[in-house]
Amino acid sequence: MGRPPCCDKTNVKKGPWTAEEDARILSYVSTHGLGKWTDVPKKAGLKRCGKSCRLRYMNYLRPDLKRESFSPQEENMIVFLHATIGSRWSTIAQYMPGRTDNDVKNYWNTKLKKKLVQEGIDPITHKPISEIMLTLGGVQPSRTSATNETGKNGRISCLNRDLKNVFMSRSDSVLDPMVAIQNMPETSGYDLLTQLQAIRLVADVSNGATPMPEMTTVLSELPQQICTSTSTCTSTAAPVADSTRIGNAADDLNWSDFLVDDIIMCIDDGRHKEVSSTPSTREVIGSSTYMDPMPPSLLLDRHELDFNFDFDLDLDFP
DNA sequence: AACTGTGCCAACCGCAGTGCC
DNA sequence: AGGCACTGCGGTTGGCACAGT
């Protein structure tokens, strides 16, 4: 037996909203505030489902919504967060003031996905498409085919290949994340551990977890130029991590920086356990195998570790 | 001008999570 | 503990606008 309908479907209007209906919702919200959406149709005199009212307000009528198109910084932000936490649009939207989950989702589906494919990156796994082809059936993509697939000039594929070579030539780093960390070159701005902690914090917050006090301390100790406090978020969405934060330096990023590699390593009581990176990010992040010192989701490959996490992480917590 | 294809975005739908009784 | 109501999320769809033929 299925779930009962949330409202009387036969007596509910569907389709585009009229200006009058919008005005009624705005009037209702200004008087009664947010919440109790099931009461809204009755009290506002609308023949709409409560869910529909909520959606209309949150996605269209909210006063803090941005109308302009997505900036390159926002694009980079979405790609990065998608690579980190998967298609958790509402979480991603929380890091983008003025954007709704629907906005982000639509933008991803209509623009970013295609853009990544054009760059030779699989939008689901964030791996190079050529690499996936190798995995699926051992097809060795030729230079020409790689060129054709990227739709451009294979620039990204070549870059990935080159990075891969560096990566593979340093198997010691690959096999032991701690060795990898020790072998890491100095990254500009602040150290790798801090970067990883910052990534973990983002993942934790996105996973609904309350950040450990020491994590927020870590962030508070980040260099001033990175953690510029420009928070002016006006979003009504709750745990708002405002801002401009990841913005600034995202300009310098290339989307290949967000590539996820084949193998990530778990530390298991000192033993190394190889796990596939293919399960969805949701599974990884939500996994009970989440363990210290570094959770699987944060055992990023060399590419990502080299990634200069030069975001403006200015996170506000409730 | 008419038709077709494509892109985009608002809205819908079904399900999961949560809190209350 | 279990049922119910409500809220929120993510996937999908409908339809409009525009470009191309």
Automatic annotation (TrEMBL):
One of its GO terms (molecular function) is transcription cis-regulatory region binding. It is found in: Nucleus. This is Uncharacterized protein. Its main location: nucleus. The keyword Disulfide bond does not apply. Gene3D superfamilies: Homeodomain-like. Residues 9-65, 66-116 form the HTH myb-type domain. Residues 9-61, 62-112 form the Myb-like domain. The keyword Transcription applies. Keywords: DNA-binding, Nucleus, Repeat, Transcription, Transcription regulation.
